């Protein structure tokens, strides 16, 4: 029997009693969320471009998952001991993969018109992993830059410090610093009930925004500005050293110089494309929200700029595997060998002593 038929079978007074009961038994959590919504009536609200956000995050997920997975698989299968740069890059891929795995939650949310259906815990976790990936990537790229700087400008004096032990120590220290930096996001991130649906705040609720603004500015300085200055200093000194030694380089020295130039171009390009525009747009948005919260036109422009660059920042998870692939010829060779071995394993087995088409002898794994 349906609910409507059940109500039809009740007397008139009992129907009215059931209706009053249903209308008065609202969950306590829903009442609390409604109170939050009532506090925000004076705040500017404007819709996001859900199609742009969902499509961009979908592209990042489709590209980032196999790229980072392939790099980690190739590194795990590697029998040769990892170099210091590989240690940093593998940690970078792990950070990227953890973030990429959260993207389906954001894609579904934007497809549902910003309605968050996954609960409070996942809301906090998704926001936490976004910032952990962002500032973990920046610090790990800083470690790579410092390592390359020591190898180019102080090759002999820095040898005791450019070891696998120090590389792992640097990676562990990076993760510890990142956790300390972004741990407050677990407290600031939360859900709220607004305009008939549950949302997951990208920053924090309006009543906590003043505290979040101070935290966000400190995080930008410690997690982005300071590491960026370190990278700029390292690369400025590297370029000066490379220019001075250009005329006396041997063939091996020219190869090392080319590798250093690739590192400079790739990391600076990554910062210019992803990290710098995002932090400029985000800082502008936070300052406008803090100083002129009632100027809806200016706030709308700042919000559009911030939310345009936020998914583009995630493209760094697709570019970091390319960084791994291009930083060293050994990485390229190992990856191509693995892919070629898989292709060979899928070929039909030739007779013993026979050659395959093209005159090459296939060596099949035992």
From TrEMBL:
Localization in the cell: Cell membrane
Residues of the signal peptide: none
Molecular-function GO term, any one: G protein-coupled receptor activity
GO cellular component: plasma membrane
Keyword Disulfide bond attached: yes
Topology within the bilayer: Multi-pass membrane protein
Origin: domain of life: Eukaryota
Pfam families for the chain: 7tm_1
Alphabetized Gene3D superfamilies for the sequence: Rhodopsin 7-helix transmembrane proteins (1.20.1070.10)
Keyword line: Cell membrane, Disulfide bond, G-protein coupled receptor, Membrane, Receptor, Transducer, Transmembrane, Transmembrane helix
Primary site of residence: membrane
Transmembrane segments: 51-73, 85-108, 128-146, 167-188, 212-243, 264-288, 308-327
UniProt domain G-protein coupled receptors family 1 profile: residue ranges: 67-324
PANTHER family (alphabetical): G-PROTEIN COUPLED RECEPTORS FAMILY 1 PROFILE DOMAIN-CONTAINING PROTEIN, PURINOCEPTOR-RELATED G-PROTEIN COUPLED RECEPTOR
Family of the protein in this entry: Belongs to the G-protein coupled receptor 1 family.
Protein name, UniProt field: G-protein coupled receptors family 1 profile domain-containing protein
Taxonomic source organism: Oryctolagus cuniculus
Lineage of origin: Eukaryota, Metazoa, Chordata, Craniata, Vertebrata
């Amino acid at each position: 029997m349906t609910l409507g038929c059940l109500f039809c079978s009740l007397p008139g007074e009992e129907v009215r009693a059931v209706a009053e009961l249903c209308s008065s038994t609202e969950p306590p959590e829903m009442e609390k969320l409604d109170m939050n919504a009532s506090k925000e009536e004076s705040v500017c609200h404007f819709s996001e471009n859900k199609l742009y956000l969902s499509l961009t995050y979908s592209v990042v997920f489709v590209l980032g998952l196999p790229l980072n997975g392939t790099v980690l698989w190739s590194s795990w299968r590697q029998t040769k001991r990892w170099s210091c740069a590989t240690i940093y890059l593998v940690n970078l891929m792990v950070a990227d993969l953890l973030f990429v795995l959260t993207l389906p939650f954001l894609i579904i949310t934007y497809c549902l018109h910003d309605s968050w259906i996954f609960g409070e815990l996942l809301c906090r976790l998704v926001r936490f992993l976004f910032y952990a990936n962002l500032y973990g990537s920046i610090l790990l790229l800083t470690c790579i830059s410092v390592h390359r700087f020591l190898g180019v400008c102080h090759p002999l004096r820095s040898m005791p410090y450019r070891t696998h032990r120090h590389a792992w120590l640097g990676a562990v220290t990076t993760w510890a610093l990142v956790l300390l930096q972004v741990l407050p996001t677990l407290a600031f991130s939360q859900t709220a009930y607004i305009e008939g649906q549950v949302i997951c705040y990208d920053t924090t609720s309006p009543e906590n925004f003043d505290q979040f603004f101070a935290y966000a500015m400190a995080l930008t300085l410690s997690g982005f500005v300071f590491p960026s200055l370190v990278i700029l200093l390292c690369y400025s000194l590297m370029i000066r050293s490379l220019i001075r030694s250009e005329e006396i380089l041997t063939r091996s020295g020219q190869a090392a110089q080319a590798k250093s130039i690739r590192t400079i171009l790739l990391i600076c390009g990554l910062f210019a494309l992803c990290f710098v525009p995002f932090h400029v747009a985000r800082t502008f948005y936070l300052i406008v929200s803090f100083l002129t919260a009632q100027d809806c036109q200016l706030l709308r422009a700042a919000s559009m700029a911030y939310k345009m660059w936020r998914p583009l920042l995630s493209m760094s998870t697709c570019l970091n595997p390319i960084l791994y692939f291009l930083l060293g010829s050994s990485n390229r060779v190992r990856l191509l060998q693995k892919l070629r071995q898989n292709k060979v394993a899928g070929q039909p087995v030739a007779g013993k002593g026979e050659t395959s088409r093209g005159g090459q002898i296939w060596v099949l794994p035992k």
